[in-house]
Amino acid sequence: MVERLRQSLEEQHFLLLEALAEHIAQMVREEFGAPWVRVAVTKLGILPGVKRVGVQIERGHRPN
């Protein structure tokens, strides 16, 4: 899974962390059959005085 994600991310460019997270979630669900995923993406040092910014999304239906 890691190698497939790496390959996909090398082929594309994302301006927004949200778009990157959505791409990862969609790929994991479609290509690996995950019914539910939680994706967290963090970028370090992009704003003065802020250590990191990030997003976390959940997609699909979480199994009980």
Brief account:
By secondary structure, the protein is of the alpha+beta class. 41% of the residues lie in helices and 36% in strands.
Structure, described:
- By secondary structure, the chain is an alpha+beta fold.
- The chain has a single domain (2-60), classed as GTP cyclohydrolase I, C-terminal domain/NADPH-dependent 7-cyano-7-deazaguanine reductase, N-terminal domain (GTP Cyclohydrolase I, domain 2, 2-Layer Sandwich), CATH 3.30.1130.10.
- It has helices at 2-11, 17-32; strands spanning 36-47, 50-60.
- The longest helix has 16 residues, at 17-32.
- The protein is globular.
- This is Dihydroneopterin aldolase.
- Keywords: Lyase.
- Its EC number is 4.1.2.25.
- One of its GO terms (molecular function) is dihydroneopterin aldolase activity.
Query: Which second-level CATH architecture applies?
Result: 2-Layer Sandwich
Structure class? alpha+beta
The level 1 CATH classification is Alpha Beta
Task: State the oligomer.
Answer: single chain
Question: Descriptors for this entry?
Answer:
2 helices; 64 residues; 36% strand; alpha+beta; two-stranded antiparallel sheet; GTP Cyclohydrolase I, domain 2
Secondary structure layout:
Elements: H1 2-11, H2 17-32, E1 36-47, E2 50-60
Antiparallel strand pairs: 1-2
